[in-house]
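Holo prediction. Input below; ligand is phosphoenolpyruvate.
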Amino acid sequence: MAYTMPRIKFVAGNWKMHGNLASNLALLTAVRSGAASLGGQVAVCVPYPYLAQAQALLAGSNVAWGAQDVSEHAQGAYTGEVSAAMLNDFGCRYAIVGHSERRSFYGDTDTVVAAKFMAALKAGLTPILCVGETLAEREAGITAEVVIRQMEAVMAVAGMAALGEAVVAYEPVWAIGTGKTATPAQAQEVHAMIRARVARDDAAVAEGLQILYGGSVKPSNARELFGQPDIDGGLIGGASLVADDFLGICAAG
Ligand code: PEP
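Structure of the complex:
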């Protein structure tokens, strides 16, 4: 199947469990106005209670907003969970699935991540699928094996056309929130490997796939990372809590 969606540059901000109404107001207002002059598409992924605030403050802007997780279930007796349909109901466009903190602290296995990916897509959201190896896995020389396993778990369930609708983020776990960024060459190597694996099944999807890099991206290292041929943008955590840093990173894309 031909891949027709335009290739867009996309930078997401992942706030994790930070913020409050007052600080979000300042941050979202600054991102909204700073992003107005950016050509690339920008999105922020905020904690559930602040999605409505993002909806209100970002309406009519070129900043999209998303959630940091989603339930794998469509509906039912799952107290505390939030379904993709609920997110879609009021205009949320993105949902992160498989973030390493969900995988390691909340037991999101490859199977659960694939189910969340499908739940998001079925409800009309764009999943942002995170993959990446731990430090121990990198040191054991199994980075490729781990990342390909995480990708294939979703590819097997979703199929290639569905993958083409999503965004992938390569986030080496050892680089998230640690200040230790992967070198541009290390990141490019894994991004190219992901694209090559997807190309084995569908060259058109591989070519159009947005593969973001995440892991201690800062304004000072963003340009070199985003300059790599297979790095299409960034998933930004800590630096997305400081408007000038986040916008500086977006501008580097
Ligand atoms: C993240 O939370 O996905 C992330 C990449 O965080 P940081 O930019 O702080 O490393």
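Residues 14, 16, 99, 171, 176-177, 214-217, 235-239 surround phosphoenolpyruvate (CB under 6 Å). That is the main takeaway for now.
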